[in-house]
Amino acid sequence: MTTTDLNSIRPTPILLDCDPGHDDAIALVMAHRSKAIDLLGVTVTCGNAEPEKTVSNTLRILEFIGAQDVPVAAGCVRPLARPLVLGTADGPSGLEGSPYLPQATKTVEPMHAVDFIAKTLREQTEPLRIVATGPLCNLGLFVLKYPELLSKIKDITWMGGVFWRKSEYITPTEFNAFCDPEALKIVLDSGVPITMVGLDVTMKVLVEEPQYREFEKIDTELGRVVLDWLKFYEKLHRNSMGVGGALHDPLALALIIDPTLVKTRPAHIGVDLTGTYTFGATVADYWNERGLPPNAQVCEEVDSDRFFDLLYSLLRD
Ligand code: RIB
Ligand code: CA
Fold it and tell me: What's the predicted TM-score (pTM) here?
């Protein structure tokens, strides 16, 4: 595709709901730098760190990458129906490995994330795409508060869930689902089209040696900051799971730019709310044994090489 073609693409307006978090941070960078995306706003939830930290990280990241004009609204400070259990992959600040990112001068919008989503949807002439890369606290609460606005959401692309790869994990859950399973059930029951970008595909976009060599070639300040994020993030993944850093959230965001990066399959997804060791588990009825209609598109395969090529190009250009 020529540059002219690329520039003639009308960017897709999106909202990004996230809990930065190293991989959320890279998704924010991609959303801001991609000509195919018009980032209308960012809403923040708890998850990888306490809410005040995920909000502060979001403001710092956006200001650092030159996106200080993108509005940020703070959201839920805990899951809808259970105490907050923090993620463990991003360190105490939620963005360890980048101490030099200046404190933000930017401040949050004077409204809750849920009300900011409603305001943004009302301003659109077309249904809006939403990308969510954290626990679904904000979107679950939105469904409960603004049912009349659900038709103004075109779809949700969510990093979350795990289906086939349970055998490789001690617990059968993925963190974003585990952190707020009630919010996930509310969103799944809402009828809003959702694409689930689960560990089945995100654990195939790992930053290992070959990828590090490519990131090291990006000799810009942004490239160096992203590399520092990846080095910290990889260390935790290496220690806890023996693999490189998985770029969970960047893959979810990348599907707005190029949906052909993955193959998806419709399925009815249930989420366990009551299991002592399995609450938050996402169960796909692929063979329709329960006779329930599909309520999600589930990502099954990913073209990892093309994903990384897209990510490198967004950081280089
Ligand atoms: O399980 C991966 C998800 O949990 C990612 O969104 C990561 O940022 C953490 O929030
Ligand atoms: Ca996240």
Answer: 0.95
